[in-house]
Amino acid sequence: WYLNLKQNHLAEIDENYHNFLFGMHREMTFQSNGIQINAFVEGVSPEGLLRLRNENNHEQLYNMKEISFVI
Q1: What are phi and psi of 28, to 5 degrees?
Q2: DSSP state of 9
Q3: What 3-state DSSP class applies to 10?
Q4: Quick one: which of 20, 22, 27, 29 could link to 70 by a disulfide (CB 3.0–4.6 Å)?
């Protein structure tokens, strides 16, 4: 990965990251502010925010510790 970064192959790094992202393109249950929600994991934004799409097809972004997986 270091060589990819050094050679500025950022798109390849991003693609591989998303290929291994837990729950990618699957409906998962999350909890945010004490409320459970079901949403599809769409990826991570360039800013590092988790991108989720709910059943109304609305995309929301979450920072670390704003949301958690429900197991």
Answers
A1: -130, 160
A2: -
A3: helix
A4: 29
Any idea how long the chain is? 71
CA 3 to each of CA 11, 35, 36, 46, 48: distance values in angstroms, whole numbers, following the listed order: 13, 42, 41, 20, 22
Q: What separation in angstroms does the CA of 18 have from each of 25, 30, 34, 46?
A: 10, 19, 27, 12
pTM for this prediction: 0.80
What's the sign of the alpha-carbon dihedral 57, 61, 66, 68?
positive
pLDDT digits (tens, 9 = 90+) for 19-59: 888 999 999 999 999 999 999 999 999 999 999 999 899 99
CA dihedral over 15, 60, 27, 70, signed as positive or negative: positive
Q: Please state, in angstroms and rounded to a whole number, the distance separating the CA atoms of residues 41 and 57.
A: 12
Report the DSSP beta bridge partners of residue 52: 41, 60
